[in-house]
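User:
Hi there, any thoughts?
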Amino acid sequence: MSTIWIITQRELQTFFDSLIAYIILVAFLGFSGFFTWLYGSDVFFVGQASLQSFFSIAYWTFFFFIPAITMRMLAEEKKSGTLELLLTKAVSDRQLIIGKFLACLLLIIIALAFTLPYYFTVASIGNIDHGAVWCGYLGLTLMSAVYISIGLFASSTTSNQIVAFLTALFIGLFFHIIFDVLANSFTGFAGELFSTLSLSTHYDSITRGVIDTKDLIYFLTLIFLGIFLSEISIGKRNLTD
């Protein structure tokens, strides 16, 4: 566990040293703040004490931001040759993947923590559903964890960061949009299957304030699968080397 935490700290420090963390934080807060408070279906336009507008925009913002965060995590290590150096030390493939996963997740949690003033402000001007808000934050965290695991897998398959970014977006597109579109296009078993596979189905359920076991199992399964496939991808590369 100490090895994983050392890797996590190293990667998190790298984010802040390279200004990536600051760019992500400023961009995320800028986008979410603008659409939550100023534009279109903002808090004042809706006319009720709710953060649904924030959760809706964050749902799309993280979809694009997370592949940008994860694209360098393993691809850059491969390109620079530091991946082989790391794995020749007393660091297992799993420890490396989990450490990088936790670093990305902590960066997202930090970004979400900076939006807590939104919650306190809305709560001070109206009767807000506190349970729904915290469930919304949980939904964003779980969704982010899924896309981080997908991004790490994409980054583990190539040494090109742009390819890793596009691959993560392509895979995420199925869970974010395509399965939902297919669910609305089919009926019966096929419709139910695509609805179950759609991330938005489970995300919407949680952000409404309902924590269902099947939603948690869905997110945790995808997270585990992404980490597992990343580990396999690195393991195969070691064998070929």
